[in-house]
Amino acid sequence: MLRIAGWLLGCAGVASAGNGAVIADKPVNLILITIDTLRADRLGCYGYRRATSPNLDRFMLRGTRFEWAFSSASYTAPSHISLLTGLYPSFNSVLLDNGRFFKLSGKTVTLAEQCRDAGMRTAAVISNPTLNRRLGLHQGFALYVDLQFDRVHERYLPKEATATTQEALEILNQVHDAPFFLWVHYQDPHGPYSPPCDLTTFGDAAPPPEKDRILPVGTDTSGYKAIPTYQVIEEERAAWRYGLRYDNEILYLDRHIQTLFDRVDELGLTRNTVIVLTSDHGEAFSEDEFFFAHSHSVGLDQVRVPLAIVGPGVPAGKVMTTPIGGVDVYATMTEMIGLKPVEKTSGRSWAAAVRAGKEPEEKPVFCEGFSQRGVAFRGMYYREDRRPADSPIWKISPTTNGKHLPLGPSLVRLSDGAGIELSKGALLRAELDAFTLAAEQAIRETFDELVRRGKDERTVAENNGLVFFRDELGYEFDLRDLEPASPEELSPEDRAQRRAMSSLGYLDKAPEESENKPKP
Predict the structure, then answer these.
(1) Which of 25, 31, 378, 404 has the greatest number of beta carbons closer than 10 A?
(2) Measured between alpha carbons, how far is residue 12 from residues 27, 177, 181, 341 in Å?
(3) Full-prediction pTM beyond 0.70?
(4) Distance (Å, whole) CA 168 – CA 60
(5) Would you call 492 helix, strand, or coil by DSSP?
(6) Is the pLDDT of residue 3 over 70?
(7) CB-side exposure of 189: number of CA atoms within 13 Å?
(8) Residues 499, 157: contact at Cβ < 8 Å?
């Protein structure tokens, strides 16, 4: 049972009827549901032929679904920061890091802070260690239920959909009679693909949609032409078996998220609550020769995500086809509950278009990763590498323990994913060039500010980050006396964070781990 009674005493009250129901004639509550590592094209409502998502499909029919929604990044931390701040990754203090080194600045206003200042109760249930409060996204949340820290074994305890749903229900039962913002993050179907249920074959007579391909076990977590080390399941080597496991992860999630949907209905919240459901990024299943991995590119397999908005004034059964980005989701959520986006955000609100059921004017939607950037516009998607093939950034990836590879430019048609001659993407390249120029300048300014602050004013993780970018990736910092911290200088929480990120494929085995220490 969550200890939330004391938290509730400090929350603002609102006018209510004698039976405790909120008196409202417009949306006053917001529920944001983010599902980790969920590709849009593995859901039935997006055309997938396996019945992985019957409950999610029915839920999305109750509101407006977005056919071409794009996450702002292809990995967890920067993508979620964009959803909750309206800033593209390069334009906030975490940059293109995945929470390994850098944290969100206290100067950055989050959606939770806006809701709190408007008198709303704010709470979050988090299931990925990357989003633990050390990242800084807890700003504005009165209650932030992230992963429990086991001090004896110095590790974070994992959380599956069953526990995530139960924690969300306990909060809902306490806050439903007053304006609130609840963010619920599900870790499923992030790898390793080990759903706590019996595997179903979905009635398939053959192993598609994955190629009937036998893969070797990789030497790192990148997933390039191999099974990532953290994804290996016993003696499984067939690619389609991992695809089947991923689909079963989605099915497991689907069954438990319905419990949350049912409680929302039982409490009568659909009449005054905007519910936004989306994912932070996708997953590779052979695209660019990567398997069961993310963060290595901004291909459609990595950044096309599901998105639906359900609530009062939102047309049911509507599908919008204009590309929308994570930064736009932030702006849309704020307006739909009567708040204004903070100044200098990157996105635009779709609230009026959603309520009217009309497509808005199309604008470029950008996606970022450490190795690539991309743009969706005019029915096409263009992506290119951030650096030339001889750049030191390809030496090692800061988001896996392997290498990111230069993949070159690519232009595809959104309607069918077919490749298009690069010469037809001049407009998209121009848009991306302008965005990249501003983004790289913003990154440089953030690093300059970090350097100016001095070693003692930075966290140990920030100092390690500057050393890593200087020594491993060729960034030119005037930090001649700065050396990486030894394992003994890291806090128990930082050591646990490294182990947790290692278990999710973002890092190799932490060097401070020894054979006699408990493993996560």
Answers:
(1) 404
(2) 17, 11, 12, 22
(3) yes
(4) 20
(5) helix
(6) no
(7) 30
(8) no
